[in-house]
Amino acid sequence: MTENKICVRLYGDGSRDAKLRAEAIYCDRSDVCSAYVCGKCFNVTSFLTPYCPFGRISRYGNHTKRAKAYAAFRAEVKNDPVYAALDYPSDIKIVRIGDDVLIRLHYISWNKCEETIRPADPGFYGGEIGSIKIDKLTPGFLGTLIDFRPRAMMGGIIEDYQRKEIPIFLYQLQRTLPEVYERLKAERPEVAEICPNFIGMWAKLCSLSKDATYRDHNGNRFRFSGQDNEMVCEDYHSAFLPFECQTAVVKVKVSDKAEYKIDDNSQVTEDTVFV
Fold this sequence. Notes:
By secondary structure, this protein is of the alpha+beta class. The chain is built from five helices and 14 strands. A hairpin with a 2-residue loop joins strand 6 (109-113) and strand 7 (116-120). The radius of gyration is 22 Å and the shape is globular.
């Protein structure tokens, strides 16, 4: 496969302690990556997050604002066609990359023993990425993940793993690898009863339910109008309306990049794209 530059980003504010640097991501498997299709990549640097085992990161620059090359370097990177093209997939639990699968569950780390990946209690760096071949995603292996009870460093079972992580993981498994999910369900029918809670997760706004309502930062309720990606608020309130009006009818065109923090599970459909 051909290695392509798929994203470049700037980090640091140009101070002596945080020099401005660029990080370019190169990958030869982006064309078979389900995260890349959604505009995401585990190799985008984010605070205390693990990286993808595929692809590579090239870091360069390291200029302060006093450096002569600072302005030209910053402008060059920002003009790159793939500048800020990808984001970190913070809410994605499973990614398919060709015949490989990446699993990233919070509160879990991984041990490799005789080429078998097994979950292990999280240490200081919990939430690591596990890489496994699709044909190794057996009901037995998945059952190990489902039944696992990670413990906190100070003791005690981390309840959010079973309550939050596993339901979302099973939901994404069903969508990403439906044949694997069906084999799991055949052996463990109870997984079909595990319902995820999507509240607090981010998704592409245009991929959410067209029948639900959505609030802006002022609490105004918008609905899809039936026109292509158009949303309408029939009773829009704002302190900046003209002519001392109290309310207005507002129509907005939603871009494909618009994201929304889910506040009601009814907003999610089978076509929802999480980010």
